[in-house]
Task: structure prediction
Amino acid sequence: MLQYLSLGIILGLYAGLTPGPLLTLVISETLQHDFRAGLKVAIAPIISDAPIILLSLFVFHELSDFEQVLGLIALTGGCFVLWMGYESLRFQGVQLHLQTEVVDIAKTKDRTYCLTTNQGTLTATYVINAAGLYADDITRMVGDRHIHLSLRKGTMLIFDKSASHLARHMIFGSFSESHSQDIAPTAHGNLILGVHYVKTDKKTDTSVSRDGIQQTLGLGRQLIPALSEKDVITCFTGILANSNMTRNGDFFIAPSEHSPGVMHVIVGAPGLSAAPAIAEYVVQLLGDAGWRAEEKAEFNPRRRGWPRFETASMVKKRQMINTDPKYGHVLCRCEQVTEAEILQSIHRGARTMDAVKHLTRAGMGRCQGGFCAPFVLKQLADKLGIAPTRVTKNGPGSHQIVKMTKAAMNN
Result:
């Protein structure tokens, strides 16, 4: 504990002396008054953040036995981590094979692996099995048939920002050993309610039923009676997988028992906070298996930022529009997402409607894409050079347009 508190103090002092608004205030107070006045401002982050840090440690320690809360944190943070990982890898020269499904893995005579996919074949000396819900499919391909997954399905509700005043912090209720519920504000201001888990044996069953919505909402009203169904703007289901190799949904990270060079990474909840440590541990396992890594001299540790028109100041907005007039064309009125942001998301790898939504928030507002979706679809079709009928919501089988209206009438 002392180690982490000491580290926090050091980081707090560093933040106080880093060039920026806080340093400007420190210098201003020192010049106007004296050294002590400047020092008080510099150490203010330590005083203000210490209770928050201690409270966070206490809360997460108390919630460690409640899988619903951990599942909520994992599911909501997972998308953000995936996006950051995608951005970091793409700008470091890593080749990403999107929409590529591994259907078979075979060992070759030269001790490598041949991965057969729906997009062709790939060869690799080492394979990291981080396939999530489909990790057990990969384990069977490499001979580890003793590894199995158990699945649970959880429903979550997202509320309109007009209801955000009902909760400013996470509210968690433990009603019994098997019944708990929580609601919390997201990073963008909406409230998220969940998770009500039920067992399932279908990995693709992310359907949401009205009964599931009513059950989740009813449980939420035990925390906040004022929650209204009218304020629910969308709902979704996530599936949590646990491995039979560990107890209580713990992580299973280990080399394959039958295929040298294959590492299984089956992560429970919450995987978000553990992701950096998991990566370091997998690198260690690969080194133990014979992999020799060389530090990349040109590695860039900083990911390029993502400019947001909605949160920019008026001065910044004018600068953005002067730089690119497309920033002045708002496509998503609910979330104030501009045409320039849509085009940038496509340029940086978005290939589906959901990918654009996850990167820009276009379609995440009250109307859920009712206004902006046609514009986003058109931009995807134009920039990717494909017909509008080939644009999908989230990959194969989710096409937004089946036929053009006149073509359907003629048939």
Summary: The first helix runs from residue 2 to 17. The two ends are 71 Å apart (CA to CA). The chain has 13 helices and 13 strands.
